[in-house]
Amino acid sequence: MTDWIRVLIVDDIEETRMNLRKALSFESRIDVVAEAENGFQAIDFACKYKPDIILMDINMPDMDGIQATERISLKCPSANVIVISVQREQDYLRKAMLAGAKEFLIKPFSPDELIQAVITVYEKNKQRAVQVYAHQILEQGYVQSPKIITVFSGKGGVGKSLIAANLAAGLNQRNKKVVVLDLDLMFGDIAAMFNLKVKETIYHVVQEIERLDAESLLSYLYETNSGVRVLAAPLRPEQSEVVTGKHVEKILRLLKETHDYVIVDTPAQLTDPVLALDSSNLTLLVNTLNIPVFRHNRTVLEVMDAVNYPTDRVRLIINRADLDTGIKPKDIKTALGMEPYSLLPEDKYADLSINRGEPLIEMKPGSKWAKQMNKLIEMISAEDERSKSESWLSRFVWKKKRK
């Protein structure tokens, strides 16, 4: 899989930083996310920008590259440091490696040598990270009751993707392993919601679907700064045509092996891939106080009833519930035959959070919308705990009956 490689350049000389940036520009995969001019700034930027690779000059005033590398290895262990120096002595190499550096480059070097070092360190450590992650899951055995939550609406523009992204971010804050599957295959926005630059998507997963297992699927997921994983929608609309319901069924099954929650964002159509979500534990049906939205979602509920989808798995979410549209939340039960599960207010920061690619509950945790979203997440978590308890009790009773 081909990823973007996020790089932080650390050097006290501006010209050197400029030359390194220029050399890296010859590789399209590499994205220089920031430059630091001293060790203290490097530590701050490593935690702030979450780079994959840090190019660290060894000789800097105030705090040298060795000290900065040691602190970064403790505070931001996911960052891989490549130390750069004119010193050839083995002692420098030994100190750099003991501090946590993954590679040691001696000046002068060519752009090709620099790029190759960055790619090699990145690929090697990404493979190791995937193996460690999979091993931890197997060791801990905590993905015992994985849940699929689908966010759907019969009408677009109601805030499905906003809700899906924030639901994932909120569950992640509660120390759950969360992945978002973007099934809006033609025009999915989940990657943008997390400010992710993606090159591989569900389209590429489908090309390898016969050979994939849970561990190899992890390599196609992109991880956000906070730890949410994303399987992105295709980059081009025509690529959506190759994804079928059977593909989605297998992808969901594999994702459940390695995550506590699979959050599924969807288009406003009941397509073949979306219909494969019959295995969802919960469907959040998103509405706004708008008659066309009600009409479309009433049709959705009728279709669910026709195909015997259990309505007790459906929860009505009202987004922008405080807007004066002439319709009150109390009218919803009359229109749809269900009580609203959660009322989310209009929020002036919603568009800003979307444009920044930062979930609202992370960007503005004190906002009314974020507080209501957290209440929704608590309600969902409480339901999960009850279902786990009931499942345990039913197994216990069944065993007693067998005796």
From TrEMBL:
Residues recorded with modification 4-aspartylphosphate: D57
GO CC, alphabetical: cytoplasmic side of plasma membrane; cytosol
GO biological process assignments: negative regulation of cell division; phosphorelay signal transduction system
Source taxon at top rank: Bacteria
Organism (species): Tepidibacillus fermentans
Coiled coil: none
UniProt keywords, alphabetically: ATP-binding, Nucleotide-binding, Phosphoprotein
Top-level taxonomy: Bacteria, Bacillati, Bacillota, Bacilli, Bacillales
InterPro entries: AAA+_ATPase (IPR003593), CheY-like_superfamily (IPR011006), NreC/VraR/RcsB-like_REC (IPR058245), P-loop_NTPase (IPR027417), ParA/MinD_ATPase (IPR050625), Sig_transdc_resp-reg_receiver (IPR001789), YlxH/NBP35 (IPR033756)
SUPFAM superfamilies named among the record's database cross-references: CheY-like, P-loop containing nucleoside triphosphate hydrolases
Protein name: Pilus assembly protein CpaE
